[in-house]
Amino acid sequence: MDVLLQQIINGLVLGSMYALVALGYTMVYGIIGLINFAHGDVLMIGALTSWTIIVQAREAAPGMPGWALLILAALISMVVCAVINFSIEKLAYKPLRNSPRLAPLITAIGMSILLQTLAMIVWKPNPKSYPTLLSSEPFNLGGAVISPTQVTILATTAIVLSLLMFMVNKTSLGRAMRATAENPRVAGLMGIRPDVVISATFIIGAMLAAIAGIMWASNYGTVQHSMGFMPGLKAFVAAVFGGIGNLAGAVVGGISLGLIESLGAGYLGPLTGGFLGSQYSDIFAFIVLAIVLTLRPSGLLGERVADRA
Fold first, then answer.
1. Which end of the chain is flanked by fewer CB atoms within 10 Å, N or C?
2. What is the pTM of this model?
């Protein structure tokens, strides 16, 4: 029971990070039908930017509390990532909006490589230790343990998801996003500016990726220029698993994938004599993707995006 509870906690923490990144994928796809494969690298930029801010702030204000450093780093990282994603959309994706779908897909892969290369030049290729800003004393939950960092990750994810759902369902921007997803031409006739909505979607997705990047770095304690590839890829799997284009599906897919990975690595490892231990946890995401695409291509919660004439 202790092992099960521990793996569930680990899975929820991992899945909440996947969910935040998956939301960025699914929001962009829902509005313009693009899989932004550079999204994982925006996460990486957010993590590395936060690392720089924390290191510099510690030197400038040694007595600054850890939580204040984390909030400062998060705010600046969100702004940096928003500017980068906004620029990517305007310079790389907007000119290809009416092109065959293969063109923006290849461009997205190119932007991913470009961001990794620029990050390697700016921050150098060697991995960097991410500072521990919160207490390292774990909480005991019936035999399982959870760190203050993990508690913060779960709480932040819940707050961010609640704010996002409120924004999408209760605000004028959210209504404009849903209208543009249904039919951008008709939305334009109703006074909505699709270009503004698309840019706002990229900005919101980038801010979510920045938060997820800080969470990832805080949880695993290291940052480097290639760190965004795997979480970005798994978040894409989570978005497909839940139903690409569906916000609730992205959350369900992210949490489910995190639990599947954690439980699979925790239980299949001992059952297979270590053959499928934690070092092989990545395979579970792609096994899930293969099964979902075979049995239910629309994902767990289906596809809400209307076909466009």
1. C
2. 0.88
pLDDT, tens digit, 9 for 90 and up, residues 180-223: 888 888 888 888 888 899 999 999 999 999 999 999 999 999 99
d(CA 43, CA 159): 19
The answer to whether 235 and 26 have CB atoms below 8 angstroms apart is: no
Decide if pLDDT at 257 tops 80: yes
How much of the chain is in helix, strand and coil states, percent to nearest 5? 75, 5, 25
| The pairing of beta strand 139-141 with beta strand 222-223 | unpaired
CA dihedral angle for residue 292, residue 298, residue 303, residue 309, rounded to 10 degrees: 150
Work out the pLDDT band at 77, boundaries 50, 70, 90: very high
Give the angle 116-118-124 at the CA atoms, nearest 5°.
Answer: 85
The CA distance from 193 to 197, in Å, is: 6
